[in-house]
């Protein structure tokens, strides 16, 4: 894990605010669908349009998922929390306020491990709070000349907002926190948590201070980050800027910045007069959310196995190196599929190699989802078993895999039909060896006379004669025995 | 068993009768201006407890087929794409919704002089106000166009006009009637209320619209008792024997108009004659109610009215940029009182003032609520007070905003505490109606209506009011 | 607490109510007049009042469609719409970066 970033005595201090869309079927306060990509405003109703007289009613599943997310992040879930109105004007905010939570959030005081410190102890970033709120709609500014187009399909999608403590000390660490956060939320099965699709959004709060100071410097907020690497790039840029300003004797202004991915720039957003006055007050349309402790415990029990537990288990159960484990855990889908293949084939190491190598390469090249890959768990497991048994060589296995991507059929049958099965039958092998020796009398004589280094050449000729079907190990054994 | 007389009167008042009366009272310079929109084709259904019976609906309840303007320019012509639960239930009972009634803009007012579409006149004296904010619905019932009308209450906007117009007006327990479709003014105080030409008719209207609604998270999952049975007056000589009526001394201050006090004391004596015990009680925080109300209500209103921005519905002012569109739409669309309350509400919620004003007001509100609970727990079944400190004043007579707010001094406490309350005519002063108010514990409408019906019956029997 | 003309301007800005300068003085005196009556609340002892006094709990609904359907098409009540979108004039200071998560930026 990279250590703190301190340049010229300026220490980088970062907190991340993550907004995560919960994967419910309907919106948080109404029965409209949360599905993506429908016609503009197709999924709206009086409630999420903020029409006069409309009222919010809370979605039970959103509460379940928010609770699970909070538990997965190590937070204390509060039995009573209160929805509050955050009042401001924006065209994609129908009511002129967002229903959120303010001083009585759903959960507080969690933490996630983002890596290991130089001394071997875990590097922990604390989570300050998790609260529930509704998403706003979308504004499209470039579709019609001089007008902005408002689509409220997204308005009312349930969100959890996850706020970290300002514990993060480097750009790499910020990226690691965001990646780990995504992983946890995905594993907890509460969200697709996809930055590119917008189900996971990350804002960065960044400030610098003199190394050793306890007080925090003035922070700026960076928005419009659409990937983990964008987070890291934006942090580097803004850190450099703040250091420059302060070194020149200037003052960092509190403002909101936007990251421009195309130009790799961080620029101020529209500057308004100072910070906002959201005039938070408890929403009188929603009584307090009261969660019995039995409910909270039930959500904890319902949580799927999370990355930290799975990480330890992979290392212990499969004896895989740390690097492989990390890669396999990258998504829950990959981890689940690996385990299925490992279990069905009985060889975790080979399963790991196949998944991380050939399978991922194939998935990346084709653009298909892992779950849609034509080589199923069972077929891959069968292929691995053939490899383990020595029925196919490593090379043949790779050819076989490529064939299985194009056609149905059990690996054994496909291999047999394509002549990929290794021949280990002594009779056949001896026959080929005899032929090669006969066709190459000079080399044969020298080999049989004691020039062991010719064995490789002769094995190669046998392989060629058998069109690769001979088991090279056995050929070697037989030739070596011949030499005496 | 034959229908009670009140129901016969209700059934006999057909839609055609309604239109005849409407044509007589609505139009012209001296017209009541009680209605903002009408549907002459409304006939209702053939079946249901209100089959074919004409009703009027305050213009802050969303309706299909008629505009919902809340008497504001910002919603001029707005056709809601959904209907309020309370209105839907009236229709399901067969009622004919003949029109939307005038009101103070966004329900902010106590005289119906704050409408963008002109004030409403009191049918009993056209130089005077009908009360507010549900002045139009009160005038519609008092003039005889309809015998049942829906209004809304946030600080007394059904009871006070009922008092000024000499009719019955009920504010149910908060949560008794769904607020889905009631355009929000102050969400923790708003109620749909019912006007009736008699206690029984108002009770019937309430019974039909009341009950849990899954579209309102503050809607109470409490069974609605049979309220019309509650209003069937027993033939016993002392039907209220065993009942304790509280007389909160803070509602009978020395400064109260002596003639209004006299009407109240007469009503209390009637209640004694009916067998009730009248007991003096104290609600010491009463004097704090108006300041508490005028912090909480504008605060919630400032947030509830943020949606009137010209983006998705309603009127939009012409502008080249978004900021100007917001400001012109809202400054052009909101009247003075609405603007004043939005500013006041925004101020008390703003940074630095939230604790001192809003949070503190909510805490004092809890004290007020607890005082009611304590009084009711001490063996008192209902409370009796004057509804308003005055009779109907003249149009234009009260110009100071805070003086206008004081018109709600006896009514806001029930909204703050969420208890059911109602007004019924108990007499006149200089020919103008005086209303007497009953209040009951949460969900105590049945008891409250029982007392109200007995009082009404006794008054009619005694040739009073 | 005394309301100043700047307070009124600030609050009008927050609420987007667009006041003319001419209205400010009367609003200042009206608001001060009203707020003066609220001062009595400062004397009240609220130390014994619990914040979570009410017993109510938010009811939870099933995660299911549909919502309350609109009985009229959006186009019938939208002040400006095209291709299904609601249209509004551009923010005066808005540039090309379309980050839409409402940053009241």
Explain how this protein is built.
The complex is a heterotrimer of chains A (484), B (465) and C (105). Chain A has 484 residues and is of the alpha+beta class. Helices cover 40% and strands 21% of the residues of chain A. Chain A is built from 16 helices and 18 strands. In chain A, strands 1, 2, 4, 8, 9, 12, 13, 14, 15 and 16 form a 10-stranded mixed beta sheet that branches. A 3-stranded antiparallel beta sheet of chain A has the order 7-6-17, with no helix packed on it. By secondary structure, chain B is an alpha/beta fold. Chain B has 15 helices and 11 strands. In chain B, helix 9 packs across helix 12. With 105 residues, chain C is an alpha+beta fold. In chain C, strand 2 (81-82) and strand 3 (85-89) form a beta hairpin. Chain C is flat and about 55 Å long. The two termini of chain C are 30 Å apart. Chains in contact: A-B, A-C, B-C. Chains B and C meet through helix 9, helix 10, helix 11, helix 12 and helix 13 of B and helix 1, helix 2, helix 3 and strand 3 of C. Strand 11 (147-151) of chain A pairs antiparallel with strand 3 (85-89) of chain C.
Task: Give the CATH level 1 class of the domain at 5-237 in chain B.
Answer: Alpha Beta
Q: Between the first and last Cα atoms of chain C, what is the distance in angstroms?
A: 30 Å
Order of helices and strands of chain B: HHEEHEHEHEEHHEHEHHHHEHHEEH
Q: How is the main sheet of chain C built?
A: 2 strands, antiparallel
Key features of this structure:
heterotrimer; B: 465 residues; alpha/beta; 11-stranded mixed sheet; 15 helices; C: 105 residues; alpha+beta; two-stranded antiparallel sheet; 3 helices; 3 strands; disordered C terminus
Give the SSE map:
The complex is a heterotrimer of chains A (484), B (465) and C (105).
Chain A (H helix, E strand, L loop, with lengths): L5 E2 L2 E12 L24 H4 L8 E2 H13 L3 E2 L2 E2 L1 E5 L9 E5 L5 E10 L5 E13 L3 E7 L2 E5 L6 E7 L6 H17 L12 E11 L9 E6 L2 H20 L8 E5 L4 E4 L12 E2 L6 E2 L2 H10 L4 H12 L3 H7 L3 H14 L2 H19 L10 H13 L4 H13 L4 H8 L7 H14 L1 H8 L6 H11 L6 H12 L1
Parallel strand pairs in A: 14-15
Antiparallel strand pairs in A: 1-2, 2-12, 2-13, 4-8, 5-18, 6-7, 6-17, 8-9, 9-12, 10-11, 13-14, 15-16
Chain B lengths: L4 H8 L2 H11 L9 E4 L15 E5 L26 H8 L3 E6 L33 H8 L5 E6 L5 H7 L2 E4 L19 E6 L2 H11 L17 H4 L13 E5 L9 H16 L3 E5 L7 H16 L17 H12 L2 H14 L5 H23 L4 E5 L14 H5 L6 H6 L3 E9 L2 E8 L5 H17 L4
Parallel strand pairs in B: 2-3, 2-4, 7-8, 7-9
Antiparallel strand pairs in B: 1-3, 4-6, 5-6, 5-10, 9-11, 10-11
Chain C lengths: L4 H10 L9 H15 L21 E2 L12 H4 L3 E2 L2 E5 L16
Antiparallel strand pairs in C: 2-3
